[in-house]
Design goal:
The protein is of the alpha/beta class. It is built from 22 helices and 28 strands. α2 crosses α3 and α18 packs across α21.
Length: 609
């Protein structure tokens, strides 16, 4: 079985295969779906993400652009070929005169899928088609099903002839994150393929694909865009920078072109070692979202992919289904583990002005933490504690008000913390955090013991030397009482607010307290910047980690880099005065608008409409 492309990984005989039979005729694509849909947990655990025909066609076209001029025999591999749709697509993407020179190879773990690939590719007039029942990685532990027969592995000595053989690879490799794959398997991947840091399954696929490409060979890759902008993607970013010359990157964002929850990116690169990076085009397309504003499209196309293929098209694009925005530029050269950003002359000039007026970052002034993580919320978090039997109602001293994303509004919380409370079994002892003694809180102790089996099943808590009733990520109880900024992890627009109640913050939010010695009013200046339309643009220019429906990820790695202007400037002092009024309430649109304009001014910019 395989995981990516048109693959069908992890299916048992009891689950019918989903079959995509792609028929390409005069540029038209027809898809016939047979069987039942694979269950979500199967997809998640095995990385089963089918390549829609239109996306397969786009990947094939941009990949073919880099290989169609090669002379002689052209060997193309799909290491996880499934039903053969990607090889079939690149056959049709190549010029007619070049097709007879193609030699296709594909590997597939699922025999039924392999049979379908053979039938599909039999109509292609190519030099050869070699499809093997073979696991490209054959990592032990990925498929624990006892019904799976022992198969040959790609890296057996008998298959060494594949190393450095292929002129091109077109692939949608399995996307299985470390959390799903498991730490042991991830460690094996890292050791086997020389990968460091956080390792996901598709990282190993890229490393293995690099080993079978010829020098100058072309890689056409479809995968999750997550690696572009998150810290854990540094392993793959380094790998691509060192093994390949990047040619084209297309961030497909929330275009909904992919059936899975994965937001796709398409990347075209050329094997080059040692790597000497040149310019790489970087195109980004996301659904256009402008709250309360109607927009006139700059262009109209039947498909957003047609718009992307027209290199002269950018800006607002309308299709029959949705409105999108296309941005085109180059991949900003990154150093070390930095995220990959889109560079344009306009963005570069804008950021230069910001940097020249930046005094600090959020990380300079504050400590940013995620909220508590209990790993057993149904035990520790409740709204109706008084509904429990009286002898199991925890003492008030260990029930603390909890802030969740449900009450996260701009400037102030939507309601006073307290309706939802957490049983917080930690205290300060000798200046350090320590678990409470259950004997000191008999009712809380009885309640927790009634859930001991559930709590003790959290083996990672016990293995860390914790008591069975502790919270996994409790943070420091002494810090909750400090004035803090709280904000939800995911939001379409910033929702940062001030909290001085001492409430605990849940793990669906982050919180900021000032570092020792920092002027207290800096917290208000930071709050104003965080809620401004300026920071929304800054986020989109520098990080641009968006989920569906325009939702942004406000994680520590991004927020700590938010810029802060000079507190002692006239604009800075005025911002603090007005933000203090917003925090105390009532909030007025006039004050918000003035604060927003002042933030832009503090960075030497005029507010953009």
């Amino acid at each position: 079985m395989t995981y990516g492309g048109d693959s069908r990984a992890g299916l048992t005989p009891q689950v019918l295969l989903i079959v995509y039979i792609n028929t390409w005729l005069n540029g038209q694509t027809q898809v016939r779906k047979e069987g039942k849909r694979v269950k979500h947990d199967k997809r998640k655990s095995h990385g089963i993400h089918y390549t829609p025909p239109e996306l397969a066609g786009f990947l094939a076209r941009v990949t073919a652009n880099h290989i169609h001029k090669q002379r002689g025999r052209v060997e193309i591999l799909d290491p996880a070929c499934g039903g053969g749709s990607l090889l079939y697509a690149i056959y049709h993407a190549m010029p007619h005169g070049a097709r007879a020179r193609l030699a296709f190879s594909g590997f597939e773990r699922e025999k039924d899928a392999l049979a379908k690939a053979r039938r599909l590719l039999s109509s292609c007039t190519v030099r050869s088609v070699e499809l093997e029942h073979l696991d490209f990685l054959a990592l032990e532990g990925i498929d624990s099903s006892s019904s799976v027969e022992r198969q040959r592995t790609f890296f057996d000595e008998q298959h060494s002839e594949y190393l450095g053989r292929f002129d091109a690879i077109i692939a949608n490799p399995p996307y299985v994150r470390t959390q799903v794959l498991g730490s042991r398997e991830a460690q094996q991947l890292g050791k086997r393929f020389g990968l460091t840091g956080r390792v996901d399954l598709y990282h190993a696929f890229v490393k293995a694909m690099a080993s079978v490409l010829k020098p100058g060979g072309v890689l056409g890759l479809l995968t999750s865009n997550r690696f572009l902008t998150v810290k854990s993607g540094a392993t793959l970013r380094r790998l691509l920078r060192t093994e390949f010359q990047l040619e084209e990157v297309y961030d497909m964002g929330d275009t909904k072109l992919f059936e899975a929850a994965v937001l796709p990116v398409i990347l075209v690169a050329r094997k080059q070692s040692p790597s000497s990076q040149g310019s790489c085009s970087f195109d980004r397309v996301y659904e256009w979202r402008s709250i309360g504003t109607r927009v006139k499209a700059d262009h109209r196309y039947d498909s957003i992919l047609d718009a992307l293929l027209d290199r002269n098209t950018k800006g607002i694009v309308e299709t029959a289904k949705r409105v999108y925005t296309i941005e085109r530029g180059t991949l900003l050269p990154s150093k070390g583990d930095e995220v990959w950003s889109l560079s344009t002359p306009e963005y570069d000039d804008w950021l230069q002005m910001v940097r020249s007026n930046q005094k600090h970052t959020f990380d300079d002034l504050g400590v940013i933490r995620v909220g508590i993580k209990t790993c057993a919320d149904n035990v520790f978090i409740r709204k109706e504690w008084d509904a429990l039997p009286p002898d199991q109602q925890p003492e008030s001293a260990v029930l603390r008000p909890l802030i969740t994303h449900f009450i996260a509004h701009r400037w102030r919380s939507g309601e006073a913390p307290g309706r939802t409370r957490v049983l917080y079994p930690h205290t300060i002892r000798n200046g350090k955090r320590a678990p409470i003694a259950l004997s000191d809180y008999p009712r809380a102790g009885k309640y927790l013991r009634s859930h001991r089996e559930r709590l003790a099943s959290r083996k990672y808590v016990l293995e860390a030397g914790r008591k069975w009733y502790e919270i996994w990520v409790p943070q420091s109880p002494a810090d909750w009482r400090k004035p803090k900024i709280v904000f939800p992890d995911i939001a379409e627009l910033p929702r940062f607010f001030f909290d001085g109640t001492g409430a605990i913050v849940n793990g669906d939010c982050y919180w900021i307290t000032l570092r020792k010695g920092v002027e207290e009013t800096s917290l208000l200046l930071m709050l104003a910047v965080a809620n401004s339309s300026f920071i929304t643009k800054y986020y989109d220019v520098v990080f641009h980690n968006k989920l569906y429906a325009g939702r942004r990820r406000f994680m520590t790695q991004y927020v700590k880099e938010f810029p802060v202007p000079d507190l002692d400037s006239d604009a800075g002092q005025r911002i603090v005065t007005l933000t203090s009024r917003l925090v105390k309430g009532p909030t007025t649109g006039k004050i918000e608008a003035e604060v927003d304009a002042l933030v832009w001014k503090a960075f030497g910019l005029r507010k953009e409409i």
